[in-house]
Amino acid sequence: MDLDFLTHTPFWIALGQIIIIDILLGGDNAVVIALACRKLPPEQRRKGIIYGTAGAIVLRIILIAFAMVLLALPFLKVVGAILLIWIGIKLIAPDDEGHDNIEGSDRLFAAIKTIIVADLVMSVDNVIAIAGAAQSSGEHQMLLIVLGLLISVPIIVWGSQLVITLMERFPMIIVAGGMLLGWIAGGMFVTDPVFVNTEKWLWMPKLGTTDAQGLADISRALYWSAHIGGALLVLALGKFIASRRPAAAAH
After folding, report:
1. Dihedrals phi, psi of 208, to nearest 5 degrees
2. Three-state DSSP class for 55?
3. Which site from 47, 61, 185, 249 is most exposed, i.e. has the minimal number of CB atoms within 10 Å?
């Protein structure tokens, strides 16, 4: 097996991004797991957490595999980038939504089912963000996704309280996470096939070309500008919306 990718800097950057995304967007999942298992007897609670999380991981890997294929279709990266911008803004200026609809169960199978279904519904943001981060590495994308999930899930499940405490104590972590999603969104947007495939969609402006592997090849200036622009857009809109909310609540 060729292990050259282990010395490939983009691989480690993308892996780091995936782990950060999983932790930041996995806080809700940790709450769902806790709520779903809260009525189980203590000896079954651990099983519920492990089996429910394992099922959710498998489903998420399948979802991301489909997302990787779908992102090769025209305009889907554009849509994905817009979705990531929105998710990043929600991180910085969250709606105060609870988890009142998550029911606890005193039966192991029902608790596991609740975890898997809730995680599936909540995984759209993770899937799009992780697929975008993995694509930036070029190669070994599925390996990156699986590694990222395997590393981050124990942190989410067993270290969720520490993660939540750190986020509450250092709000800048949340802001940086939202900007990371904007950073990925900027790169996704300008590398959509409609902007780099010079043989199709000729009515669209071309920002670059595709290389021998079919990956986007754009100028370094555009590459960095798009990433930085996406991060700053999320920061600006997130801060603007957050500043408007207290004023709206006062009326």
Report:
1. 180, -160
2. helix
3. 249
